[in-house]
Every structure is written in C-alpha cells, then in structure tokens.
Write a structure and sequence with these properties.
By secondary structure, this protein is of the alpha/beta class. The chain is built from eleven helices and eleven strands. Helices cover 38% and strands 14% of the residues. The strands form two sheets. It has a seven-stranded mixed beta sheet, sandwiched between helices. Strands 8-9-11-10 form a four-stranded antiparallel beta sheet.
Length: 381
C-alpha cells in the first residue's frame, strides 16, 4: 500500500536547513503524537511531550531501556515466546540474560499471567518484561486485564514494556499509550513503519512516565532523529495524511477478511492461530487434507515457503520453529493483486501431486529447516 503521505508535490519539507543540526527535543512532533494517542479511552489524563521518547524505530527504545535499567552480566529481561526477536538480540548485545515464559497456547497466545507473576516473585534480577500486542507472529491483542495484573505485582520493581508496533491495524481505541499516565511502571512502544507505511524513515516512539522518559532522553544521542525524518513524521500527522493512512488501513483490513475467507478453501490449509488484529495471519500448513486427518507439518510449511519464494516470487515467513507454531507460516496481507497471486500460487503448489518436503524428522529436522529458511531468504535478498 502507499505510505501515509500525500503525493510528493504536496510535501513541504524544508531541505534548505540541512546544514543545521536537528531539533534534539522534537517538540512539534511529540505534540502531534500525543494528540493522536490522547483518545481518553483508558484514562481522563492526557499525554504530554514529557511522556515521550523518540528514536530510530522501536529498536532504539528497546536498546535504551536495556541500557537504563539492566546491569550487564547481572540483570535479566523476561519475554513471552513466540515474540519479536529483537528483544533477545538487544539483550545479548547488552550482556543481559533472557528469561522466557511462553504465551498460553490454550488461550490463543494470551499471557500466562500466573507463570509470569511467579517468575517475577522468585527472580528480582528481572528488570524488564517485554510483551507484544498485537503479537508478532501471533497477530492477537493481549488482554488489558492480564497486563494490569502484571503491573500490579506487589513486590516486583520493574518495567512492563508493551510493543504496539502493529496497533493501528487493531480496532480504534485499543492502544494503551495513554495508560502510561496511570501506570508509572508501563512503557508503550510504537512506530510509523507499519500502518503509516513509513519504514524507510526509521522513526519510533516510546510513551512512559515523565521520570522514565527523562532517563531515556538522557541516554540517547543528542541528534538521534534526523531533520528529514522529523519533518516527514510530522507531516504524517496532518489531517489529509491521516486520512490516507486510514484509507490504506481499511483496504488492508478488507483484504485480511478476504484471506480469512479464501485461504481455508485451499487444500491442506489448516487453522488460523492467534488472532486477527494485525496486517498478517499465522496459518497452519497440513501434511495432508484436513478431511483425511491432516496435521500441522513443519516439512510441508517449509516446502510451501521455499516453493513460493524460489519459483513464484511470493514472500511469506516460516515460523514453524517458534513455540506453539508448528507447521505455521506468517502471511502478510497485501494489495488485492498480491492477495490474488498468493491465493493462486498457494493453491497451485499445495494441490500438486507429490508435493513433499525432504526435511529430516526429529532432532536434525529443525536444523535443516533453519538452513533451508536461510537459503530461501537469500533467494529473496
């Protein structure tokens, strides 16, 4: 889909002051972000620029939080797989251990609140809990009450970090950004890379208490957001550009509903796992048709993933090696033409007689799947 900016002729980005350093405080942009998220759905209080940190995508906020709150070689973070891999990558870079409490597959990948609270009670070295809503790759919103139960932990003195990268594909009013005014131990991260279609400008934000945001702003580089990025991000919040974003979102959600209807009609497509609150779906690929007792199969999912990438030019993501995702592909919702092609090529491949995956079963199968996934990624690159 096009990004959430009007045509290039209507952009008024001042390119004549690139000889000057950018505004280190980003006051205008922060005000626009606050106005956008002040829905008063979850609190009568209002976000102000003092509740904000802005940086290079959400990844800068992930790293800055680790540097602020974790002592290398001593402290830990908690994550809930399957989830976004950058939390663990940043932790490794900062020499911070990762404690994993998997999502509850019996509750459609919701938080296992009791397990999380118990872990926090017994390990005071855990300083941050990173959770993702909507989940990646699970596409489901996390329960607000579950998040609140963790925030209300009676003894744990840490920060819950809620990653809302895909929140604008969810129903209006579901973002908890403004809730940071009620919970000083909550940080909410967002980005313009998804629904706004502005991944190329690398802009992200974190909402939190004034005290926590002051810490993040003190550790960031002085000019971490460039002038062009700031100008383009500010322009994205103009009324006409918000209208474009919402129009694009409506088209994507329409195609998401189409995929939910049409994919199950294809031979050997299984269930949708997780939720439908994002711009992608987590889909099971079966080893044989469902009416013949087909079961989710990593071998079949990998074979489809490879064939789509290498011979049909269709990009999906293999997620079968992640917790609770056996036999799953993460499929992004595209334009009508892209969805046409996805449905056609997926149906063609899965119905071909004798389509089989030659991955090895058991212990070596996972390693071979990882190797083949890297090879297919190399073809795409």
């Amino acid at each position: 889909m096009p990004n959430a900016l009007a045509d290039s002729q209507s952009l008024r980005v001042d390119l004549l002051r690139l000889n000057r350093y950018p505004d280190p405080h980003q006051a205008e942009l922060k005000n626009k972000l606050c106005n956008f998220r002040n829905t008063h759905t979850h609190t009568p209080k209002a976000l102000t620029p003092e509740n904000l940190f802005v940086g290079v995508g959400s990844d800068e906020a992930i790293d800055a939080l680790l540097r602020c709150f974790c002592t290398p070689g001593r402290d830990k973070i908690l994550t809930c797989p399957p989830t976004y891999g950058m939390y663990a990558v940043s932790a490794q870079v900062n020499d911070v251990e990762v404690v994993k409490v998997p999502l509850d597959t019996k509750r459609a990948f919701q938080l296992d609140v009791e397990a999380i609270r118990s872990t926090l009670s017994t390990d005071s070295s855990i300083k941050l809990v990173y959770v993702c809503s909507p989940g990646n790759p699970t596409a489901n919103l996390l329960s607000k009450s579950d998040i609140q139960h963790i925030l209300k932990h009676p003894t744990w003195n840490g920060i819950v970090v809620l990653d809302e990268a895909y929140i604008d594909f969810s129903p209006d009013g579901t973002s908890l950004a403004e809730w940071v005014t009620e919970w000083p131990n909550l940080v909410v991260m967002q980005t313009l890379s998804k629904a706004f279609g502005l991944a190329g400008i690398r802009f992200g934000a974190a909402f939190g208490s004034v005290e926590v945001m002051r810490l993040l702003n003190n550790v960031k580089a002085p000019y971490n957001v460039s002038s062009p990025t700031s100008a383009l991000a500010t322009t994205a919040f103009q009324p006409q550009n918000l209208a474009i974003m919402r129009s694009n979102r409506a088209k994507i959600l329409g195609q998401r509903e189409r995929m939910l209807r049409e994919l199950p009609k294809i031979n050997r497509i299984g269930s949708f796992l997780g939720g439908t609150d994002s711009n992608f779906l987590l889909v099971e690929i079966l080893d044989k048709p469902k009416d013949r007792g087909g079961r989710p199969s990593n071998q079949s999912a990998m074979a489809l993933y490879e064939r789509l990438a290498e011979t049909r030019g269709v990009v999906v993501r293999f997620r079968g090696n992640e917790f609770g995702c056996e036999g799953c592909l993460r499929i992004t919702v595209g334009t009508p033409e892209e969805v046409d092609r996805l449905l056609k090529e997926t149906g063609s491949i899965l119905q071909e007689e004798g389509m089989r995956c030659n991955g090895l079963p058991g212990e070596n199968g996972s390693k071979k799947e990882e190797k083949r996934e890297k090879e297919a990624n190399a073809v795409l690159a």
